[in-house]
Amino acid sequence: MKGATITGIGMSKLGRNLHRPPMDLLLDAALEAMADAGLTRDDIDGITTYPGRATGSPGMSPLGVGELRNALGLKTRWHSATPEGAAQMSAIMVAAMAVATGQARHVICFRALTESSSQTPERRASLPAGSTGRVSGWPSWYLPMYAMSATTWAGWAATRYFHAFGMTREHLGAIAVNQRFNAQGNPRALMHGKPLTLDDYYAARMISTPLGLFDCDVPIDGACVIIISAADAARDCRKTPLRIEAMSAAMNEKETWDQQPDLTKMASHDAAADMWKNTDLKPADVDVLQTYDGFSIFVPLWMEAFGFCGHGEAKDFIAGGHSRLDGSLPTNTGGGQLSAGRLHGFGHLHEACVQLWGEGGARQVPDARVAAVGMGADRSLAQCSSSVIDD
Predict the structure, then answer these.
(1) In this predicted model, what pLDDT tens digit does every residue of 89-101 receive, in sequence order?
(2) Cis before 51 (ω within 30)
(3) Range in 13-27, 324-338, 377-391 with the lowest mean pLDDT
(4) What is the C-alpha separation between 126 and 34, in angstroms, rounded?
């Protein structure tokens, strides 16, 4: 997206059962992001979020744009909230389009949730009808088959991929162990200070075969803010702006997981293929990959979608060490959602920026210049998006 840049990032404390008001967490992230960019409240003239305030899912999205606007005392020219069903990167994408078309100069994009402290044994945001007890729409076809959560649906894709290409739990375990290793270099990560071995991975309880406990990301309380700025406005910001080179949320098939014609590809392939059409960069130019890992199986799907390896080859790519910090394609360098905590992709974009600004400390990838980010999704892998940013 020509004309759009990232100028600042912020993140609150991440944790389980923090029992802090969501606005408290969001203000921490917003103020940090503005300071990071060298901007004041008077500079912010746009605001957007994913997915907007949602009252039906406890803790999943407790705040809307108006609440943050009022809390910060902003005078905005443009605002937006992307609805349920939109791509998880949609807030970033519409903000980029807003600054590129002159609707705003500096836009706060945020994700805030209190999913961990809001859930009870009877009420969970990640389960259909988790707060209302009533089921409608597409979940009504899943629940009679005891497909109660996304773990089951992701298990379908993993089972099919295992059958088609010979992947094993050892390959998925390598993803979980690698990302936990990366989290040890990220002080913000939920699992910082808690190493994981392959033996630990195997010993953990199964959730939905072939996915076990450590194949699943971690619900948390927390907030993340990304500031998107017009390219000319970014010249006055504190740091070198990161250019958004290309992005896409293409979707060519149905958006429910079980209706995909090929469960070993799914919609990440559509988004990535469309994104590459909008840039002269190639997969070989990418220095770091930050990709959605709501479940570990999504990582190889995204690797293949982006073209870092061929279809069915991700297991060998991972086994060869390519996704490690010292590999050819360091992946989810901050721990990803499996070890840093679930921010529905915003944490991945935050980490991409950390790497491109050279602020990764012990986990920093040397000379990182180009990052690929794959985000998606909360209800369907068809709701995914991808982007390439560079400095």
Answers:
(1) 889 999 999 999 9
(2) yes
(3) 377-391
(4) 31
Residues 6+ apart with CB under 8 A from 201: 169, 173, 176, 177, 212, 214
Tell me if residue 322 falls in helix, strand or coil.
Answer: coil
Q: How far is CA 61 from CA 292, 376, 379, in A?
A: 19, 16, 14
CA distances from 48 to 52, 89, 227, 307, 342 (A): 8, 11, 10, 31, 19
* CA pair distance 125, 349, nearest whole angstrom: 23
In the numeric block, which tokens belong to residue 268?
């990440």
pLDDT tens digit sequence for 198-228: 999 999 999 999 999 999 999 999 999 999 9
State the Cα angle at 387 between 297 and 328, rounded to 5°: 60
- Of the candidates 333, 329, 312, the residue with the CA atom closest to the CA atom of residue 320: 329
C-alpha distances out from residue 11 to 102, 144, 188, 189, 268, Å: 27, 39, 9, 11, 26
